[in-house]
Amino acid sequence: MPITSELRPDGIRVVTVDAPPVNALPVQGWFDLAAALDEAGADPLTRVVVLRAEGRGFNAGVDIKEMQHTDGFDALLGANRGCFAAFKAVYECAVPVVAAVQGFCLGGGVGLVGNADCVVASDDAYLGVPEVDRGALGAATHLARMVPPHLMRTLYLTGRTISAADLVPHGSVLEVVPRERLDGAALAVAGEIAAKDPRVIRAAKEALNGIDPVDVNRSYRFEQGFTFELNLAGVSDELRDRFAGTDKAQQ
């Protein structure tokens, strides 16, 4: 299964994404991830979640090949709804979510990480939102939670990536460590949270969401509307076909 969930004796629940070759999730994978996070928050024994991945990178977004090999708009609609559900599940998880990011974190990966409560990364980690090259819009909402406005616009409009090390000064990444120490670093900060009174931590998570200046769910849904417009105009299919035919990472 691409999504697994394991509750440790210390109350840390480790949710792992493992969908080779690049952790680009199919439609069902996004819904499965959302379900795992919802279940984690609903379990009173869960004190904190560590969201991590196996493989070369944390997440490469949606499975574009699935989308391009599915007739009609079912896969597109499924991916949009699945991403919305997964990002929402991270944000609204009743307990804090610590993201452990290695290698590439692109598109939907930024949606997950941008909604997390704490981010720890390996020294080879980098983040980016290549949506403009794929005929889609989305995750600017989440990228905006990690960098200042003008940097967000530059990264979004150019499709450039930014290293996790460069995000540390912005405060959006807590620390960068060698890859072999990534799980340990994520578990360490998660352990600090798990040691607190869980009643207070759950209340704190809800309170922090309540004072956020931007409604991330509504903001992301607004972005998705433009994705549908581009699809109806035929632009998205053209760009996705070009990507699926030339990109070697997912072949």
Q: What does this entry look like structurally?
A:
It is a single chain. Strand 1 and strand 2 form a beta hairpin. The two termini are about 20 Å apart. This protein has 11 helices and 9 strands. The protein has a single domain, classed as 2-enoyl-CoA Hydratase, Chain A, domain 1, CATH 3.90.226.10. It has a 6-stranded mixed β-sheet with strand order 1-2-3-4-6-9, with helices on both faces. The C terminus is likely disordered. Helix 1 packs parallel to helix 3. Helices cover about 50% and strands about 15% of the residues. It has about 250 residues and is α/β, with parallel strands linked by helices.
List keywords for this structure.
lipid metabolism; alpha/beta; single chain; 11 helices; disordered C terminus; 2-enoyl-CoA Hydratase, Chain A, domain 1; 251 residues; Enoyl-CoA_hydra/iso; three-stranded mixed β-sheet; lyase; ClpP/crotonase-like_dom_sf
Question: TL;DR of this structure?
Answer:
Belongs to the enoyl-CoA hydratase/isomerase family. The protein has 251 residues and is α/β, with parallel strands linked by helices.
